[in-house]
Amino acid sequence: MKLILKAAASAIALAVSSGLHADVLPDSQAQSAWFTDAQSKIAQKLEVNSKFKAKNVILFVGDGMGVSTLTASRILKGQMAGEMGEEGYLAFEEFPYTALVKTYNVDAQTPDSAGTMTAMMSGLKTDVGVIGVDEDIERGDCSTVAGNEVITALELAEIKGLSTGIISTARITHATPAATYAKSADRNWEDVSDMPEAAVTADCKDIADQLVNFEYYLEDRYTGIDVDGIEVAFGGGRRHFLPRDAAFNSPDAVSSVEGDRTDSRDLTAEWQDMYENGVYIYDQAGFDAIDPASTERVFGLFNESHMQYEADRANDVAGEPSVADMTTKAIDILDNNEKGFFLMVESGRIDHGHHAGSAYNALTDTLAFEAAVKAAYENTNPEDTLILVTADHSHVFTIAGYPKRGNPILGKVVNVGSDEPAMAADNMPYTTLGYTNGLGFQDLGNETDADAIYAYAANTGRMDITNVDTEASGYHQEALIPLGSETHAGEDISLHASGPGSQLVQGVVEQNVVFHLINQALDLVEE
């Protein structure tokens, strides 16, 4: 312990001498508190974790949550609390182990969520746009699926007898959650209406069908196994489970016809018939009524399409639970199984905020995601639960210019020693945050739904934002290259880990290593 504290003191002394000046530590009391906190963090990182096996594993995926998103989010978090911002941490950034993760797909330098999540779930990298299958697949060709399916960590957990859960703020049939349970030649085959006739005729199954009939399809694929099905599924995407008939609309339906299915099947009813002790819910009231101690399984579809952005959640017709609340409820249900559980939690709308060119929505959803990770950590035992926090890919999202310390992260660049926005060579101010491509600038005032920008044409290039409030929720950053949607980026993302087996999270790794970390902790393949 003395060696740890000595190392901590040396590291802190070096940090202070390297640039942590009086503006960071304004008085002796603050310096003492900072020193003690820094000591604790360094001691934690130096402490050896001798445990490798876990009872539970929770995988958190911040969709599109690249390193620049983490940096900007932690600054925003601090500034929302009245601090300068740069000196803080997101909760999971304080986990003791961290690695960088390479995200390319087999056929793509810059990846998509289908290929990246399949890699994390199966241990095998694959192509862009396909779900739960290897690279020998031909995207869109149903006939190439058979024989190329991969088994996932969630499926292996089911076979081992663990409880399993899936949470997403996107549609539960979207690429990231789908990669935990489905096998599809195309990520877009979310329901039968999305599939070409040839695929339907060839008896390929849509993704929603595969979720509802997960137990049957898994037992059919592997002879001699007996599983009891996914215990918790929370997310959006109700339209893919309901027939295209207004008679099946949910009470909070926004569209005149909520369902998309063209095969007349009501998969929510099929699920309820299959699991008599299961509870199907669609709104906040139903969610609140769930008693985790007595609930065997629950299926919650809280929106026709994706769930609301965190900033827009209060505007939902019937109310939606937060990702933190869904995580807590899921853990309380899953830990009824003494054997343990595997849970995947995706914050899907970080990605959508970036695609819409809205830093505000992307960052506020990242902070909601952080709250979910914190809730999971506080509601599990770090001695028996491995928590992994990562992303599937990054975005072309930048933090630029030379703003002074504490400058509003959503604001215009104000240089060191100045109180006025800096001017670019075109004699106009510019923001710290920006995008390389996308729809570009829009000033939508207090709008909290980033997707409102899709009603407008691309507006890229430089704009005079002198009199624009760039910190408003409806502000969309400038972009250089006009595209219908901002794109993913190809650089590495981060992986943060806590709990048994977390000490293996080090260095620069391939994305499929995430599966092997889960497997190592739970002994899934051996089972």
From TrEMBL:
Q: Which family does it belong to?
A: Belongs to the alkaline phosphatase family.
Signal peptide positions (record)? 1-22
Q: What is this protein called?
A: Alkaline phosphatase
In this chain, Zn(2+) is annotated as bound at 63, 351, 355, 392-393, 488
InterPro entries cross-referenced by the UniProt entry: Alkaline_phosphatase, Alkaline_phosphatase_core_sf
Q: Where does Mg(2+) bind?
A: 63, 174, 176, 346
Which cofactors, if any, are listed as required?
Mg(2+); Zn(2+)
A GO molecular-function term, please? alkaline phosphatase activity
Q: What is the lineage of its organism?
A: Bacteria, Pseudomonadati, Pseudomonadota, Gammaproteobacteria, Alteromonadales
SUPFAM superfamilies the record matches:
Alkaline phosphatase-like
- Free-text cofactor note: Binds 1 Mg(2+) ion.
Cell cycle: is it a keyword of this entry? no
